[in-house]
Amino acid sequence: HLYVSYGCPWAHRTLIVRALKRLDALVSVSVVEPVIGSQGWVFGAAARGTADTLYGKQYLHQLYVRAQPDFTGIVTVPVLWDRRNHTIVNNESSDIIRMFNTAFDACGGDATVDLYPAPLRPAIDALNVWIYDRINNGVYQAGFAATQAAYEQAVDQLFAALDELEQRLTHHPYLAGEQPTEADWRLFPTLVRFDVAYQ
User: Residue 127's closest CA among 184, 179, 191?
Assistant: First the structure.
């Protein structure tokens, strides 16, 4: 089971890979509301989220505590949940998309879709680090800058990275070459939100 927020770019990438790998019948989804309330992520109204379809919980933090009763850490989405063992498998989007790429191939996932092909792995790994540092995290460095100077530096670095991407994509249709890979899907959720959420 996958717990997500539609407002979260990290959760968005897991939904994309779930769809590309045709895991809809294997990995069900519950959606928290896009705004964090005083109790954290909340399950809610159909227009903005869904109910917790597994346990009927009101807040996501209740699932973290179900998995680990003494949990006191930060509650984040996405969460990949083990329905059989009633626990969290992982809450790191990059790990979840890597799992989705192959873990379900033998039981109904689309094995013809490989977002991390062996020949491209070094390039994908390098792109993933660069995308995270310069763009995925870069938008937050600008948005949460504490001073005008820090903001200007972060914005300059972010737009320089976007220029580099544009140059890279003049040579190939996708970041790692001729086929879409996980690097493209790690980038897309940030880019698609850029004008709406980050500017």
Answer: 184
Which residue matches tokens 């346990």? 55
- Residue of 140, 151, 174, 198 marked catalytic: 140
Rounded to 5 degrees, φ, ψ at 143 are -65, -30
Q: What is the b/e burial string over 73-88, where b = at least 16 CB atoms within 10 angstroms of the residue's CB?
A: eebbbbbbbeeeeeeb
Which residue in the list 8, 55, 107, 132 is annotated as catalytic?
8
**What are 166-194's pLDDT values in tens digits?**
999 999 999 999 999 999 999 999 999 87
Sequence spans of domains, the chain: 2-107, 118-198
Tell me the CATH class for 2-107.
Answer: alpha beta
CATH T-level fold of 118-198 = Glutathione S-transferase Yfyf (Class Pi); Chain A, domain 2 (1.20.1050)
Q: What is the pTM of this model?
A: 0.93
The answer to whether residue 8 is catalytic is: yes
Render pLDDT for 15-36 as a digit per residue (tens, 0 to 9): 999 999 999 999 999 999 988 8
Q: Are 59 and 40 in contact (CB under 8 A)?
A: yes
